[in-house]
Structures are given as structure tokens and as C-alpha cells.
Predict the 3D structure of the following.
Amino acid sequence: MKLRMNPLKKLLLAVALVGACLPLTHAESDFNGRWLFDPEMSTALDPWSTMAIAIDVQGDEVSITRKFGGDKRNASESMMLDMSLPSQVVEVEGWWDNRHIGAYIGGDKKQTVAAKWLDEGRTLQLNIDMILETAQGESPVRVLREMRLSRDGQTLRVLQLRSSRNLPIVRVFRKQ
Amino acid sequence: MNIRSTFLRLITTALTLAVALTAIPRSDAEQPHAYVMQMTDNWLIEGDLPEQAMLMSLQGLANRNGPTLYLEYGPKWPWQITKPLRGFYEDTHGYQFTKLETAQAALDALASSAKGYVVWDKEVRTSLIVAFTVSGLEDALVVSEDLIPLAEAAGLKMLVDLRNEFRGMPDHEIYQIAMDRYWERCSRDIVIWMGGHHGSRMEPGMADWGIYRKAFFTDLSHNPKHTEELALTNKIYREQNPQSYVMGWHSYKKDTEGQQVAMTSSYGLRMEGLNTLPNISFNSQIGFSEGFVFKNNHNVEPDEVVIPEDKVYIALIQTDGIGIGAWTKPGRGKLPYSWGMALSWVDFSPGVLEYFYAGAKPNDYFIGYSFPSYIYPKPVPDSAYPILQSETRRLMKALDLRVMDTMDYSEGNRHVGNTDLTKNVVDHIYNGYPDVIGFTNGYGSARTYDNRDGRAMISYDYYLGSRRPKAEAIADLEELMALNTKRPYFLLMHVRETSSIDTVAEILGGLEESAEVVPLDVFLKMAGQAQTYKTRYKQDDDPVVRNPL
């Protein structure tokens, strides 16, 4: 049977379809901006005292810069991801996630990142393979980092599991 | 002459003298005596700073006549040992202290040590620093305007008036004037950096010592952004005697610790902190008690070979300054702990060192430093190494020290940059200290490692900050154990001075994998026998961050 629709119904259907797609597009772009660390709701950040994440989503390209600060000392890690690729190699400035321990970025500062959008674009998941250099040499480490956007788009929760660490890290950021 | 009556007269006189002597309290007759006065924790210009600065100047002047005035500091003062140290002087050196309750009482007792007074300007904080210089040179009590009546009542006359002299001037102009007037007459062996807190507050704990030694006082910048101040700073360092002392601390407002110590090190000068270190004019005159010799709690013989098992070994070190922090807190002795010893105190605070050695428990182990004072090795010119290392060897031997720590923040810190040693520096250290059984490096984590003839150099793998939650600290240590998979694994841990040993014990007790905490000398001996770490020096492409403000 041939489905017959009048122009008004076609328009309503089109609007409905576009509306159905909107949450995805809308959520991904809601990641855009600068996110400031909320220490009260987060795993301890020391020795850093401040942290900010800058995200810029432009189609398949996602730029993520994590800035760590504290007492006149600052460091940043930035990566540009192509979401159309299943996996890619990025070069970072350093590994700043835990400066209490003797572990430094190794493997020529390269990380292999598999990135994907999940939960209708409300979660950006990164699977990172990297090398950390320690006293005894280089050691492979896996990182699962999920960046989850709240319904109101004002809170970003970053959950991180590191294969070398027994505790998960949960950090909360508020949109600036 | 009647011999009998003469004999009786002699006997009578002797008895009278004996009675007279026994009438004097034994302490007055035999015990050394000094005054003690309590400082408050209020160091604000509009608070207690003016009166306390005056008392510090009085201390510096009075102690030129021998150890006369000792100051005790409040519970918030960084150096927590002033009370127990006084008790130690009483118990072991026989000192008897008379308490002075007021500034008036202090001046009544000791104003004669001053020839007059210098007035500083409360509107210009830097004028107080200049007044300290004047005090040492002119034997002047340091007073603010409101304390003039007190000084006058003590019979002192005004020698120098700094009121209205410096208003509206930047520091480089003030210090240029001070140098024009006083620099030529000041000591070239010691200069005092009266930095630390700034603004409405000053903690001039070293003022007595600088006055006692006629030092120039300043808080000039080491920051490349402050070109006028930096030029004066360089002039001072250039004109100091070689290997002389820069004592005090940098200004938290102007520059960083890394900037100052990198610069003093580049001149081969000896940095001694902090600006808050108290009572040196007194302590420098208290020698060792009779029969005292330094005896460290060694756990291995220098030529002993110790073979490790396949497990994790942890050693704990605190190097922030033995008089601040955990030494006076509960828990000491519970774990093998190493304490960085201030080598130069052999010469200017010997009694204080005796206090620490006498109070050491079997688990307390003292270690030295790669230079006689706080010096970063990378900026030190090669030509300055021999004399500095010779002095270090003398002090290490005097203090019975066999393990040496080093630290270099000239190109980074525990956050960014690097704190590692070049091969050239490591060569200097190994060659200059043939009697040292092992070396440690860093402050936060670092990655310089070496092993020569069983003498290991191990960098800190962990920095335990005072605010680190216990669960995170446990996870940190377990992460290190996961990343360093070979056994034995030698995990060297630096503990911030404000972390108590009880806290450290709780953290180590929470580890999943069994780890043995061992004395540092045993740790290094084992590390010298089983090199599971990779030899590494500072690399050309390591990041460099020169600690900007």
C-alpha cells in the first residue's frame, strides 16, 4: 500500500524527524566551552589546585585541552580527535594526572586514542593506550575516560579508570 | 706576732667566706644565666611586629656580650623547637633562664647593649628592613615612632630617623639608598634576605643574627621581571666573599624559592633558610655539652653487603628542615625515618644539633646534603665544587653522616620542568664523596638513578603531601608498585614535614602488597646490590621551567 500524506503532514513529520535528531546534535555541541573543576564534588586533585577543560566540537573534530594549575605552576595536555576514525595516535605535552608519583609520559609522548560518542551524544568516551616511564623503565597503561554531560548541560562529570590504579577517579566540572 | 691568734683569724675569715658563699644560691654561683622572653603569634605591622622587632634587635645587640637573651615563639611559628630547646639548655648545659614579662623589663635589663635607637616608618614596610641594617652597624635599638618614649625612658637617644625618608619610593630606590649609605660597612660573610611573608606582615626571625653579625638586610627580587632590583641583587652576590652565607628567604611577593636558590648557587654562595629561623645569635654561642660526640644510628657498616629479597622496599625521608614539623609531633620512632640534617649548624647552632642527636630514637637516622648549605648542584660553577665539597666532607664527618641527599629546582619543581641531575653533576657527587654509601635525589619525584660500585643514587618516587587523602595516598603507592613490576622495587618516599609519622604509618598499613619499610642506609645498600632501576641522568630534551612567579 502506498502511503499518502498531505503537505502539512509531511511538514510535521519532517519537523518531528529533525526534532528527534536535535538532542544528539544539541548535546554534542553542549560540550563546547570551558569547564571549571569543582573540588567539593571531586577526587582530590593535589598537587594541583585548579583544573579546567576546554572542549570544542566542530563536526567530527573534537579538541580537548586539560589545564592543570597550582601555585604559579601550570601544565596542559591537548589533543585533537577525529571522531570518524575508530582509533588514532595523538601526541601530548606530558602526563600530568598524578605528579606525586614518579611516572612520566613515555613512548615519545604518543597516545593511541579510540573515541566515540555514547548515550545520544551525552557521553564522550576515550579509550587511551599510553606508555608511562618509571624508575624501572616503560610500562603500558590503559585509560578509560568518560566525559558525561548532565541533562541541563551545565555539569561535566569525568570518570577515569587507569589500569595501573586501584581507585577510580571522578572529577566534576561546571560550565564557565 | 701571735701565731695562734693569726691562725684563728685565718680560720674565722675562711669560715666567714664559706658561710657567705653558701648563702649565694648555687645556681647564681655556678650556673650560666640568660633571659627568656615570649613572642606572640601576631606579626602584623599594626599588631605586635613593632615591639617584637625591637626585642629582636635588642637580642642581637645584647648577645654580642655572650648568650644573654633567648626568645620563645608562639604555636604558629614555623620552628617549633624554641621551648624544648630551652629546656634542653637547662638540663644539659645548666642554663638558668629569667623570664622577662614586658618590653619595659627587657629594656631595663638590657638597654645598655645599645648606643641609641633607629626609628623606622610604619608607612613604609621596607624601612624596617633597612632599620635592621642600621641596628647592626650603629648598635641601635629598632623602634617605631610609638616606641620612642620607651627607648628614651631607657636612656637611649635617637641615632637614625627613617621616618618620611622613603615614602613613595619603590624598593629598588630604597635599597639603593641603603647600599650607598651602609653597604661598605656591612659584613661580606653574611647577607640577610628578610623575605617570606609580605604586605602588612613580617616574620623577621633572623633579625637578631644579622644584627649580631652586622649584615646587610634586604628582600630584593630574583625575578627577571624586576630588572632594577635584580641588578642590586647581583651586585650584592658579586661582592660577597666566596662561599659566604645568604641567610633568610626570598620574598613571597617578588619571586620564587627556585629563582633565589638557583641564583645564589650560580655564585657558589650558601643559602640558609628560613627568615624565621630564630635565636641564632644565642644558639651560635652554645657549644656542645661536656663529652658530647655526634653518633648517628647506623644500621649497616660502610663496607657491608646487604642482599635484598624479591619484594618492595620503602624508605622514608623528611628534608624540609628538622626543626619544623614532624620531629616534635607524636609517632616519632614508630617507623625508620631519615631526617635531613642542617650541616652548617655545626658552626652556627651546635647546641641545637646536639639537641636533635640527644633526642633521636633508634629509628631516627640523620642524613647530609650534597653541599654545606641549601645549594642546587646544576648552577654551581665547576670551579666552586672543590671548596664546597671539601666543606661538606668536613661537616658530614663531624656529624657522623654517611648518606647524602640532593635537590635541584633550578629547572623545574615537583609539578613541571625537571629536577634531575646531569651526568656531569652526578660525576661530581660520586667523585667528591667517596665515603658516602649512597645518595638520594629530588624533593617531589625525580628520575635520576645511578649505581657505581654498589653505591646507589635513587630519586624519590613518591611525594606525600600533607593534604593528600589517605585512600589516594595508598592508591598512589599501589600504582607505583603496579608500574614498577620488577622485584626488588626500591620505593623512596619524601614526606612533607607537616605530615605526622602516625599518618604515614596508617597509609603504609593500608597497602595491599606487602612492603617492608627499612632504614635508608639499608635501603641504599640493597639498591646498590640489585639494580632493578634504569640508570638515568637529565636528558637534553627534558622540559625546563625556571620557576617563574
